[in-house]
Each structure stands twice: as structure tokens, then as C-alpha cells.
UniProtKB/TrEMBL annotation, chain A:
Segments forming domain RNA polymerase sigma factor 70 region 4 type: 117-167
Domain DUF6596, first and last residues per copy: 185-285
UniProt entry tagged with the keyword Protein transport: no
Organism the protein comes from: Streptomyces griseochromogenes
GO BP terms: DNA-templated transcription initiation
Pfam families (UniProt xref): DUF6596, Sigma70_r2, Sigma70_r4_2
Family: Belongs to the sigma-70 factor family. ECF subfamily.
RNA polymerase sigma-70 region domain boundaries: 16-79
Domain of life: Bacteria
Protein name: RNA polymerase sigma factor (Sigma-70 family)
InterPro entries in alphabetical order: DUF6596, RNA_pol_sigma-70_dom, RNA_pol_sigma70_r2, RNA_pol_sigma70_r4_t2, RNA_pol_sigma_r2, RNA_pol_sigma_r3/r4-like, WH-like_DNA-bd_sf
UniProtKB/TrEMBL annotation, chain B:
Name under which the protein is recorded: Transcriptional regulator
Pfam families per the UniProt record, alphabetical: YCII (PF03795)
Ranges for domain YCII-related: 6-97
Family the entry assigns: Belongs to the YciI family.
Membrane-traversing stretches: none
Organism per entry: Streptomyces griseochromogenes
Xref: InterPro entries: Dimeric_a/b-barrel, YCII
Amino acid sequence: MEPQPTAAHAIETVFRLESPRVVAGVARIVRDVGIAEELAQDALVAALERWPRDGVPDNPGAWLMATARHRAVDLVRRRETYARKLAEIGRDLGTTALPEEPADPDDIDDDLLRLVFTTCHPVLSPEARTALTLRLLGGLSTAEIARAHLVPEPTIAQRIVRAKRTLATRNVAFEVPYGPDREARLGSVLDVIYLIFNEGYAATAGDDLLRPGLCEDALRLARVLSSLMPKEPEVHGLTSFLEFQASRTAARTGPDGTPVLLRDQNRRRWNRMLIARGIRALDRADATATGAPGPYALQAAIAACHAHAYSYEETDWRTIATLYGLLAARSPSPVVELNRAVAVSMAEGPAAGLELVDALAAEPALRDYHLLPSVRGDLLARLGRAAEAREEFVRAASLARNEKERELLLGRAAECAS
Amino acid sequence: MPRYLSLVHIDESAAPAEGPSEELMRRMGELIEEVTKAGVMLDTAGLTPSAQGTSVRWEGGKISVTDGPFTESKEVVGGYAIMQCKDKAEALEWTKRFLKVHEEFWTVTCEVREIAEG
């Protein structure tokens, strides 16, 4: 039984919910996400002092926003203080665009979008983008981000500080990109969210729920982005893909934490509500698309094929193989090619799949990728070439990154020997 | 991130006969949009009056069917929301916001229950 949250916890909850919007709204005034976050934190401190005494205001979000904005406007008016703040992050008043007047609260969605494009800006390393996005948009604390990434908290704290400094010194404009680089910039945003999801998805091992929790943080970010950019098909494509992936969570591991392969998953444990949401998001991706589907929409369509099959035997491998073909043409990668080989082997037989896999043997990107020998072993086993299959499974086991997967692969090797 | 089902119980006899005011519907719409934009709301709907409902009961190995309204209970389920939240505190915060858009003459109880996973 979860106890009733304490007053302080309730206030922190309100703050966590409102924080992205407050930071975004203030960043528009001070033109710097680092300073904006500090001012938002000041507003939280004020709330923690005031609310327990005077009661929580009717509209706590508006209160926090007004308090933080008020401080922002004050700061900007006291030019010396503002100049000092800017100097701390390596900027000066002369090169900083003049702050705008606080806008209509209805523009908050635009401010949020500006914040998304800023935290996912390509001047930052992928690690810095994910950390800053989780911090400012996902509402995660530095400690939570550190635990989820299995690194010490000071490392993440440093990463976030440096990221903010980079944005300031490189004079990254707090704006939503339009024009020629918009697509690339949006791609960067989607990739950051996907990267966060994947970190959680790959972390099936371990007792710490914060790692799998990253999947949900990413999914929430994707859902938010879908509502902020309803006309972008790839945003819906990503959301759809993640909804489908998340729908399989309960079936992906056995009671003892061992990974369960797609073919062996108990599909009754797939979450139908998330599948329905995935289908709806995919429909929106189709409805908003003006050209051929993008890579995320294609991956969502593949996931939808799996979701529509009530048993592994009913999987429509022909369609999946076709979709992988489109994906390989659209954004070629050895991993996509490997997945295409699996689908082709299911649609046309193991020999056709093996031909595609063997073409990948020399691929440097896959040299240490355990799934290449694992897939090859599986195809050889299906072709009755047990001794070769066993070798591949042993090799795959030596490359596998987590213990549970290693056990699974050694088990398959043993099957080939008997 | 756990999922929560908020079962909205209302006292139908005390609810306005003409249904929710336009003002309430507008505020409710805005709130639902906000919760959806926050990536929290997975599904929500209101239910038709319990007078149009039927309860089908299994007891002692027998089925019995009773048409509504269900007079034995003062408050009946009038709607539901399924939210995905970081913790119960967040689910309760959204629930309070949902309740606060109602006029003062309403009596509404939200039963917030975590959905069992796995």
C-alpha cells in the first residue's frame, strides 16, 4: 500500500510536471536554458516556502510560471546582474539577443518545442543530448539519470553543466528550426528519444527498474512531441513504434529475468491498449505523410505486423520482408539488413536468408555484434547443418553482452550437439 | 512508470438533470488536452447514465441480470481515465486537477487504483 504523498512530495510532483513548461517559458526571456533552469529552481524553492504556509494555489503551474518569469524579467532589467550571469557562461550582453516580452501563455507549446530542439541540438554529443533532454523535458533528477545510465552522479552532473555551457558559448538560438535544416534537426530530436528508449529496452537485466523505466520516459517524450508536432509523420511513426515495442515488455522476460525470444513470447501478455495506441499513431503517421514513409514509420509498420499476429506462426513475414526492403533502401544499415535476412528466411526459407547473412560476413560494423552469428547459427540449424550452427552459437555467446543472453546462446549450441 | 485507473464515481441523484454545463465541458476539454499533451493520458471516457446499464452477476453458480439504475449504491461509476504516471503522487495531482474543474454543487469521488502489471 503506497502511503499518501507528503506535502513536500506533492509540491515536488507539481514542480516536476510543470518544470519543462516553466523552463521553456523562461528560456524565451533570458535566451539561455541554463539560466532558465536556475530561475525555475528558484520558483520551486519559493513554492516550498510559501505553499505549506498559505496553501497550494488553485493553479499551481501558473503560479510557478509567473514567479519564474517575474524573476527572469527582474534579472534582465538589472543589467549588471544579467551581464554577470551571462559572463559566467561565457557570453556577454552585446552578443545576446534582446529578451522578448513574455508572450501569451498559449504560446507555451512553441516554447516547449524550442526547448526540445535546443536540448537535442547537434552541437552536443549524443550523451549530452540524452542527459539534457531527460533533465529538462523528462523531469528526471540528475541522480535518476545517472542510475539509469549506470554511471556516477557527478559524471551526469558534469555532462549537463558542460552541455548548457556549450549551448551558451556556441550561441545556439532558442528557436524551432524552419527551412532546409529542419528535417535533419527533427531527425536528431527523434533519434535522441529513440536512443533513450533503447537504453531502457536493452537493459532487461538488473534489478534497477530505472533502466527499463527509461523506455517509459522516452515514450512519454514521444507522446508529448506527437501533440506538439501533430503534422509531422515521423513523430507519429516514432511514437507508434515505441508504443508497439513497449506493448511487449511484460512478455520479454521470464519469471527469472531471462530474455524470451519473440517466437516464444506469450502473446496474451502483450498489452492490447498499447498495441491499439500504436495502431492509432501509425494511422496518424500515414494520414500526415506526403511522400514515402520514413524510417520510423516503416519500423512501426513492421512492429504492427507482429502485433497483428496472435501467434508466431501467423506472422506475415512476406509483408515484413518487403517493409525491411523499403527500410534498407531508405536508411541502409547492416543491422537492418540482418533483420531483413531473418524476415526473408521466414518468408522464403532459410537458404534465401543465409545468402543475405553471408553477404554481411565482412561487414566491419557487425564484427562484434552477437546477433550476426546468432542469426547465422539459427539459419544453419534450420538447414540441418548442426556442427556449423553450434560453432556460430558458441561464437555468439562469446560476444553477447549480458549473462542471460549468453546462457540462451550456449543452450542453443548444446541443442545442436545432441 | 505505473499505470493508474481513475474510476470516477458520481451521485447521479445529485447531478444536474440537464447534464454538465457547457462551461464545465469546455474546462474539462482543456484539461484533457493538457493531460494528453503531457503524455500522461492513455484513455478516458464518460459513461451513459446507469439507468441504461445492466449488471450481470455470478453467484452460487447462477447468473442473475438486473437492469439499472442501481439503487443499492449512492454513487455509481460515471467515467474513467487511464493515466501513466511516474508515481501515485503524480496520479493524484492530475486527479485533483480533474476534480477542480467541476462546479461546487458536484459531488465526485475518484477512486485511483494502480493497474497490476506483468
